[in-house]
Amino acid sequence: MSKLQNRSVTIALNILTAFNANYVIVLPDGTQHTRGNIVVKKAKKEQPRRKMRGNRKYGDLSSHYRAFMEDMIVGQIASVPVNGFKPAHLASSMSAWACNYWGTGSAIIASNKDCVEVMRVK
């Protein structure tokens, strides 16, 4: 660490000690400064993010249900066939689209095995 970094750490430690604070500070080089009865748990290893797998192109899901939903008026019900999509993913995406374009609470969505139904209420 550079002189400036060491001096900054020393100042920070002096301030924390002046406030009678308990602390554990681990510096990038592995140096550890401790005061009080604090136990440091090891950080969990970060899991890699799951990637969606599938043979569909970007936008296939939204273009599928938008054909049914874009021209809906208040009180109208549309039944969107699943067509190989997971019903939960389709319903979630439809709900998000309805909130963005019509407003929060503007649609009621129910999913079945073979279709997802949407009713525009606002």
Summed up, the helix count is 3
Helix content: 25-40%
Average pLDDT over all residues: 90
Largest sheet: 3 strands, antiparallel
Report how far the terminal alpha carbons are from each other: 60 Å
Number of strands: 5
Poorly predicted runs are none
Return the structural class: alpha+beta
Mass-distribution shape:
elongated
What does this structure look like?
The chain is 34% helix and 20% strand. The strands form two sheets. Strands 3-5-4 form a three-stranded antiparallel β-sheet, covered by helices on one side. Strands 1-2 form a two-stranded antiparallel ribbon. The termini are far apart. The chain is α+β, with helices and mostly antiparallel strands and 122 residues long. It is elongated, with a radius of gyration of 27 Å. It is built from three helices and five strands, in the order H-E-E-H-E-H-E-E. The protein folds into two domains: 3-35, no CATH class; 60-120.
